[in-house]
Amino acid sequence: MPTILLLLDLAGTFVFALSGATAAAGRRLDLFGILVLSFGAGTAGGITRDLLIGAVPPAVLVDWRYLAAAVGAGTVTFFWHERIERLRSPVLVFDAGGLALFAVTGTEKALEFGLAPIAAVLLGTLSGIGGGILRDVLLNQIPTVLRVDLYAVAALAGAALVVIGRLLSVPPLLALLAGAALCFGLRVAAIRRSWQLPAARGPPRDDQRGGRKS
Fold first, then answer.
1. Residue 80 lies in a domain
2. What is the C-alpha separation between 94 and 159, in angstroms, rounded?
3. Which of 20, 129, 151, 155 is in the most buried spot, having the most CB atoms within 10 Å?
4. What's the DSSP call for residue 197?
């Protein structure tokens, strides 16, 4: 399991870094800006997770492969951005992949450190949404998790499935893959079918209409 968790963690870092780099390239940032976004998006969730469970220093700061995965994703995006943009909604797809991988690895790592099932689910969810939050904040936009589409709910579902698998003595790898597939499937389905949670009702504020009262 340690090797499997490492591989999934690195994969999540790379995919989330791709989402950050692709979003940065879409805003026409330079190479340095793209690398900053790729590193931030790819590592924020893992760093937060490790700090909260006491796995210090965080794996990102002691294992060069995390930095290589994040920088590699940024570099690939910088040179082949046009090809990546040909994919349908590349930022959202990469984001869904990173969300799924970090949600299940965060949950499993929390369980390994002795956290209770509910706490492990919450930490896995936080691990999954951390990279997307930092990416959106750096790009000066409302984080995806705070919007009305299914995001944190998908991470919660994937994390919960990992915990249920542990309680039912399901092989860990099978539980991880099932949880990641559930999270990814829910997120992609929400994007394509426009599934949304109920939003607050009421007239839009003046700044949402594009103007302000004098």
1. yes
2. 18
3. 20
4. -
Look at residues 126, 106, 139, 124 and name the one whose alpha carbon lies nearest to residue 20.
Answer: 139
Report residue 80 as tokens. Answer: 């082949």
Is 25 within a domain?
yes
Q: Is residue 93 part of a domain?
A: yes
- 75 by Cβ neighbours in 10 Å (0-12 / 13-18 / 19+) ranks as middle
Containing domain of residue 90, as a range? Answer: 2-193
What's the mean pLDDT in 29-41?
94
Domain assignment present for residue 23? The answer is: yes
Amino acid at 184: F
Q: How many Cα atoms sit within 13 Å of 123 on the Cβ side?
A: 27
- Closest C-alpha among 163, 129, 180 to residue 4: 180
Asked if pLDDT for residue 213 goes beyond 60, the answer is: no
For residue 50, give Cα distances in angstroms to 35, 81, 138, 161.
Answer: 22, 31, 22, 21
What pTM value is reported for the model? Answer: 0.83
- Per the structure, the count of domains in the chain is 1
Q: pLDDT tens digits, residue range 98-152?
A: 999 999 999 999 999 999 999 999 999 999 999 989 999 999 998 888 876 788 8
